[in-house]
Amino acid sequence: MNKRKKDHIPKRDIMYAVNKNDSVYIINEDYFYKTEPYYTIVQNEFQGIRTVPSSGDVLDAYIVPICLEKAKMAGISVCEWVISYSYVTLPAIVYGLNYFSTPSDHFVVNDYPSAKKVIRHVTNFGKYPFCYQKMSSGSEIETYVSIFGKTVNSSPEVASMSEKIYSVFQIPLVTIVLVRDGGGYYLSSLAPVRYSQLTREETELLQSFLETRVNH
């Protein structure tokens, strides 16, 4: 008997909506303000449909200082952060805070000439503030994809942190940016995910959640 080939999911630029536990789960590569997923969430909330993630959680997650403070209040270890217009303590991770900035674009600066160049870029020549997080000389940045709070091939500590982050922000698909320092992990930011960047194991995990998708 011939079997029709199963459509490959997820597909680039496609938003998925899954009904589960009397809620609608929106799965997408990103949830930025004024995107289709964001407006879908807002419309659902206006109609009284319980939607995950909520519009408030999405906005909180993608603004680095707010994200870290919200996570810290929930008992999650986070990087210490500072908002500045020009000064930075080196070495550091730098994030833009202007309207067009995204947590996907973070910059590690180790010297003042490179820091000056990065700051000029993320502030649009001093028009906007930026956020920086001081790093120690031995610290490293690691990124993990969280799929409904689950990570693939990660340590128990990272897996536990991913579950905690999901319980706070309820974002089905998100990149967790961590700083590993002295054997411990600290949340640096949450960022969008590209389907094309998922590993085979991550794609299979996401597909298992999308099997019951109702529309896209």
Structure write-up:
By secondary structure, this protein is of the alpha+beta class. The model is unreliable at about 1-5 (pLDDT under 50). The strands form three sheets. Strands 3-2-1-11 form a four-stranded mixed beta sheet, covered by helices on one side. It has a domain at about 80-135. It is built from six helices and eleven strands. Strand 2, helix 1 (about 35-45) and strand 3 form a beta-alpha-beta unit.
Note the topology.
Layout: E1 16-20, E2 23-27, H1 36-46, E3 51-52, H2 55-62, H3 64-73, E4 82-84, E5 92-96, E6 106-109, H4 112-122, E7 130-134, E8 140-147, H5 156-169, E9 173-181, E10 184-191, H6 200-210, E11 213-215
Parallel strand pairs: 2-3
Antiparallel strand pairs: 1-2, 1-11, 4-7, 5-6, 5-7, 8-9, 9-10
Quick overview of this protein structure:
The chain is 30% helix and 26% strand. By secondary structure, the protein is an alpha+beta fold. The relative contact order is 0.18.
